[in-house]
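Minutes, structural biology subgroup

Action item carried over from last meeting: produce the structure token record for Entry exclusion protein TrbK (Rhizobium chutanense). EB confirmed the sequence was re-checked against the source entry. Recorded below for completeness.
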Amino acid sequence: MSRSVLIALALAVAAASAAATVLIVKSSDGGKPALTEEQRSAREKFFGSNKELPPIKDGQEMRPRW
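Output recorded by EB:
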């Protein structure tokens, strides 16, 4: 085989693998439904809600390193 045939074959294999990767990623991403209100409340109960944390009192002051 000549060098140009090997390069063309390598490019064809790379293109085919890239196309297969794109198709696999696209197919697994499409069917995700949004969370229901019951699921959202259960998640907030388990992980905690998005409330602000209380300020730290008497903690070490963080200063820049420069």
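Discussion: The radius of gyration is 26 Å.
Next step: EB to file the record with the rest of the batch.
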